[in-house]
Amino acid sequence: MDPRKFGKILSLAASDNEAEALRALQVAKRMLDGAGLDFVDLAHLATATEAGGEAELVAELQESLARIRRENRLLKVENRRLRTATPATAPECDRDVADVKLKLAAERSARARAEAERLAVAEEAARLAADIRQLTAACSHLKCELERSEHERYRLVAEARRDAFAPAKRPGLCKSARTPMSQYRLF
Q1: What is the percentage of the chain residues whose pLDDT exceeds 90?
Q2: What is the pTM for the complete model shown?
Q3: Are 50 and 42 in contact (CB under 8 A)?
Q4: CA–CA separation, 25 vs 15, rounded Å?
């Protein structure tokens, strides 16, 4: 980040034009984000510089530089090791390929077993659904038969009651059996 350009942008933030001042602050924030900083870090740097904290800032920067150099050295060593390493030998590759083939075969057989089980379960479910439909139809038929037989039973019970309370009829006599039926007039 260029400090001069950043200073010019911040000076525009003091403009009387609100839009210009807001835009200047947005650009300044973008510049700080690009440098990995924010306004809090900027305020910390400003107060550290005013309070004579330049030595602390320099120490922090040197510590960061030393850490980055150590990481760089380690990465160079790792890079050299990888470049000089011998590639895997053919038998090792063949063994790895055989292991992968075995794993794939095991996965395929497991999938085939699972698919066969799924199909068996689906067939069983279809068979059970057909059985349920048949049983439902049989239950419905039996229910109708039961209702019909109950109606027949009620009819027979009513007929038996009527026959139990009715006197035996003799042709030609009325209730008291003294007066013949012919004496009664019907309308």
Answers
A1: 35
A2: 0.33
A3: no
A4: 11
